[in-house]
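Appendix B, Record 12. Input sequence as logged:
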Amino acid sequence: EVHLVESGEGLVQPGGSLTLSCAASGFTFEAYTMSWVREAPGKGLEWISAISGNGFSTYYAESMKGRIATSRDNARNTLYLRVNRLKSEDTAVYYCNGPIGSSNWGQGTLVTVSE
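Logged structural output:
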């Protein structure tokens, strides 16, 4: 059974940074592209990044390019997301999804950007 568990910062100040983690189990993690998706209050799901199984290729939403970076540690079956220069509009529940496009989602981790 696939399990995805996100973790990371809760309350962050504007202009700050955060790193989220997603621990994966139940499938051959290194074989699959993984993605991060977020859902802001009152809005729908927004795809923000993806990374290939070997970590060599990364993809980012245009709206966030230059502020985010996704990486993975296949030895630890863990996916990461780094977001810099946080804005209030980054407030959202962040989810990892994998393999990308599958119905496998974590429970999400809430990030609140506020003073």
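Strands lie at 3-8, 11-12, 18-25, 34-39, 45-51, 58-60, 68-73, 78-83, 92-97, 109-113.
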